[in-house]
Model the fold of this input.
Amino acid sequence: MTAPRFVELNHVIRDGLITYPGLPAPSIGVHLSREASRERYAPGTEFEIGHIAMVGNTGTYLDTPYHRYADGYGLDELPLERIAGVRGMVVDATGPAIGAAPFVGLELRGRAVLIRSGWSRHFGTDAYGDPEHPYVAVDAVELLVAAAPALVGIDSVNIDGTASGERPAHSRLLAAGIPIVEHLTALDGLPLEGFTFFAVPLRIAGMGTFAVRAFAILDEDA
Done:
């Protein structure tokens, strides 16, 4: 039996990581050190308890409808069938504005639709937040909403254009109950089809966005 072939699709969260320009970086440290723990446990026994403080929009993260709408479902109500074990599809598209053309004729219903723009190569640099980054244009958003995928992901700084305050992709996808995964990476390791996608955040009440460990399992014949 061939072992599953896993492909990591998330950025590693590190102390001081800048994900989205203007948002604070995570602070990662130690709540209880190994040295201090020795006073609490039997000789030869030690532990470390880490501490992290960060905004939900850190690293590769998933948006639920609550991120945009006060009455939308949040992380604690996020259906697992939308984010775990979902058959995936990669759509190659370049920006800045990604129109409907790359999606026309594709069977998107119930799929994890991952938009591969190549922009993740700029992650961690000033260029990543450039307003000319790839984003999903309104005509493509309308097609996606009508197609009813399980979720939509992109390897760019935002699924929306950021030159203005308008956010039609977030607004329309999340209104339709379709989660969004942003800041994906390493999508070049995936085929167009032939994989299963996972992007599971913690189940936290009162939050609409949180980091995920996004990954894919390739089919044996992919």
